[in-house]
Amino acid sequence: MQRLIKDLSELNNKVIAIVGVGKSGSALAKLLSLFGAKLILNDKKPKEEIEEHIKSISQSVYKIYCGDHPPEAFEEAQIVVVSPGIPLSTPSIVSAIYKGIPVIGEIEMSWEILKIIKPEIKIIGITGSNGKSTTSTLVYEFLKKDDKRVALAGNIGFPFAEVVYEIYNNGAQIDYLVLELSSFQLEGIKNFKVHSASILNITADHMDRYSGIKEYIEAKSKIFQNQDGDDYLVLNMDDKNTLSAIEGLRNVYLKRGKLPHIFYFSRKQKVYGAFLDENFVKFNPREEIQQEIIKEMENTVLPIDSFKIKGVHNIENIMAASLLAFSVGCKGETIKKVVKEFPGLPHRMEFIRNLNGVVYINDSKGTNVDAVAKSLESFSNNVILIAGGRDKDGDFTELRDLVKSKVKALILIGEASQKIANALGDLVSHYFEKDLKSAVFRAKELAKEGDIVLLSPGCASFDMFKNFEHRGEVFREIVNSL
């Protein structure tokens, strides 16, 4: 596909509409303003709510449309850039596509500019329904510890556009860029290409946005659509939906004539890549890759007992992150050191406290059914599970076997509480609570020494909280006040 921008001078006076002036949209507006673009800003929020975002770029703002996404907002646009929170199925955006106006995402536009100003930067892209932030952070920590000049951006930390701004405007020295990428961000790519990519897993999520799992898989698969024979792709051999994404590699081969080097990771079988052998993660390289990478992989063994972060899902995250790090020349000894020290991220199987022999775990980031399953797999039994929130069209019956074997009581909150009760309530005692505080108090009342109180909601947080971080912080505060 032809590049949208071949030279930065093409941006001067180009009319670009940015749809969604939040974190990524405002960062992109700031970047485009450096090159003289005429910006049309569009957001569903009232104008006063976005004014703070546009103060520094007011001279570049051509027009502003707020309160909705009207078709007239895009009539003069030569390019439309859509923020990830806004579906491409929005009628006015569909209309712009129909008229032949290029419609892309912030990731694509940032990449187009980066490839002009510093094409040698190697990009490592990570997507998946669960584990993206932990895996992305691990890769970043591996490379940083290995004395590589690396930045972390995308769906975590800074928007991609902000990193490109720092490189161009402030001379930031970066050789590697780790990007956490959501399916929403991947929807808007055209030419975007990563050196090393991973799909960690694909489980039914955001079904309120997609027509079904097939469309969701297709969005995730876009991460490798522009890779070629010099690139690397890391896939989860144990995840059936991830394996079905491999069908998209046919298109890659037809377009490029070559496929990327493919590594797999598995907890269940020996594969080319990373696999679990009793209590050790071992690596099995393909012969056609660089000898330096083969040597590092063959000489590296990671004892599970040495990992500071716990849980079966984190074994998978470490496998994937290690393979991605190896693909860009990271040393095995560096990986060994980091996994012994890395404490994990907040709200992801986060230990809060041990109170009278009862352990409290904050897994507020467990926002879908598969995430809850992976968390429950990490415990033997005696779990008091706090779940519920805003349903994302999850199938909670998939948890029946785990709940039957691991959970002693189910405490339900939020909009999805009745749906969860209908799916699981016949297996264990269950309780409906009005809010998180009463849920924690109920858990304390039920818990005995040796029990685990686990907040792993399986749902979005927006019915009761600003986001999953807010939910996790409230849980932490309540538990620490007991």
Task: Give descriptors for this structure.
482 residues; alpha/beta; Rossmann fold; UDP-N-acetylmuramoyl-L-alanine:D-glutamate ligase; Protein-Tyrosine Phosphatase, Chain A; 3 domains; six-stranded mixed β-sheet; 18 helices
Structural write-up:
By secondary structure, the protein is α/β, with parallel strands linked by helices. It folds into 3 domains: 14-101, 3-Layer(aba) Sandwich (Rossmann fold), CATH 3.40.50; 108-341, UDP-N-acetylmuramoyl-L-alanine:D-glutamate ligase (3-Layer(aba) Sandwich); 350-480, Alpha-Beta Complex (Protein-Tyrosine Phosphatase, Chain A), CATH 3.90.190. 36% of the residues lie in helices and 20% in strands. It has 18 helices and 20 strands. The chain has helices at 23-33, 47-54, 91-98, 106-117, 132-145, 160-170, 183-187, 213-221, 240-244, 249-256, 291-298, 312-327, 332-341, 369-377, 400-406, 417-424, 436-446, 468-480, and strands at residues 15-19, 38-43, 61-66, 79-82, 103-105, 122-127, 150-154, 176-180, 196-199, 232-236, 261-266, 273-277, 280-284, 301-303, 350-355, 358-362, 383-387, 407-412, 429-432, 452-455. The strands form 3 sheets. It has a 9-stranded mixed beta sheet. Strands 15-16-20-17-18-19 form a 6-stranded mixed beta sheet, with helices on both faces. α4 (106-117) runs parallel beside α6 (160-170). It is globular, with a radius of gyration of 23 Å.
